[in-house]
Design goal:
Blueprint (H helix, E strand, L loop, with lengths): L5 E3 H8 L3 H9 L6 E2 L5 E4 L2 H13 L4 H9 L9 H35 L25 H7 L2
Antiparallel strand pairs: 1-3, 2-3
Length: about 150
């Protein structure tokens, strides 16, 4: 690796449109990696700019950093990804995003009865959780997605 092909953290931040702390955070999370020079300063290979672009795109699509990290784990870290690498990553995201869109449509379509009545009737409400029965399944909404699917 030619030392002239390495970018300082400030240059990576400027060229990628993120802050220096964000570059450090992405590195800490394993989304990108750097090498250290003789003065123990971070240096990044140029192709890290593509990885940061993928991270930012994934975040705009609503993917978590864990999901983005899983996708990036299948890409090479020592050279730019190939067209085939990108196609594989996009297929993975396509399936995940399609599933999310379908789930949100089910929630949206099932929401009209609650908005229509305005009272969240305990007898007919699909999200009512009497005596916190669903607590054993963990935190967060549990009943609504099942009710929206018609389960």
């Amino acid at each position: 690796m030619d030392r002239h092909d390495l970018l300082a953290i400030g240059e990576v931040a400027e060229r990628s449109g993120v802050s220096v702390p964000t570059v450090r955070f992405y590195e800490e999370k394993g989304l990108i990696r750097s090498v250290r020079n003789g003065g123990n300063q971070r240096r990044f290979e140029r192709h890290v700019l593509r990885r940061i672009a993928v991270v930012r795109a994934g975040q705009r699509f609503g993917l978590s950093l864990a999901e983005i990290g899983d996708a990036l784990a299948g890409l090479p870290v020592d050279h730019p990804p190939t067209k085939r690498d990108w196609e594989r990553l996009s297929r993975t995201w396509h399936d995940a995003l399609t599933a999310r869109i379908e789930a949100m449509e089910r929630v949206r379509d099932g929401l009209s009865s609650c908005i229509g009545c305005g009272c969240l009737s305990l007898r007919s409400c699909p999200v009512y959780n009497h005596d916190d029965e669903l607590a054993v399944e963990g935190p967060g909404a549990r009943r609504w997605p099942a009710a929206a699917r018609g389960d």
